[in-house]
Specification:
About 45% of the residues lie in helices and about 0% in strands. It is mainly alpha-helical.
């Protein structure tokens, strides 16, 4: 078999589906089952079984496909990293950003701990954001942690690990 299909002899799919593939039983049973198979509407079946996992999965997949194919919102562009030196800015073309911070050669430093880029058309955006307050509290917590860690390390110096 070469992988091509010659359906003139009743076979298709390399011999896996053939005219011999049918229901078992006597002629009456086969006729009844063939009629049921011909009249079966899978869409109608799934419509009446919304609690089943395949129905839920198909609905979720359809929603994702619709969301992905819809155009970006007409709202203003948004960049949560705007103003950060280690991030692409809204008015900065990608080519310029990559020249300014080439990923392969940009060294990690306090100015460049990471290279950030955001989707300016993202649908989800924070509604109540206090980044300055967050950063202040985070810095205080980090300093407190570092001080406690240093105290513990000092008190444990010279002791077995």
């Amino acid at each position: 078999m070469t992988g091509t299909h010659d359906e003139s002899d009743g076979t298709a799919a390399g011999g896996y589906i053939s005219s011999d593939s049918s229901f078992y039983g006597d002629a009456e049973d086969r006729a009844r089952l063939e009629e049921r198979a011909a009249s079966f509407d899978p869409t109608n079946y799934w419509k009446h079984h919304p609690h089943l996992l395949p129905v839920k999965a198909a609905a979720a997949r359809a929603k994702l496909d619709n969301d992905a194919s819809s155009p970006p919102s007409d709202g203003p562009l948004y960049n949560p990293y705007e103003g950060m030196i280690c991030a692409r800015q809204l008015n900065e073309p990608v080519e310029n950003f990559l020249k300014r911070l080439p990923p392969l050669t940009t060294a990690v430093s306090s100015l460049y701990p990471w290279i950030y880029i955001a989707n300016p058309h993202a649908r989800s955006r924070p509604t109540d954001r206090n980044q300055a307050g967050f950063m202040k509290v985070a810095e205080e917590l980090l300093q407190a942690f570092t001080a406690k860690k240093n105290d513990i390390e000092t008190s444990m110096a010279g002791k077995a690990k």
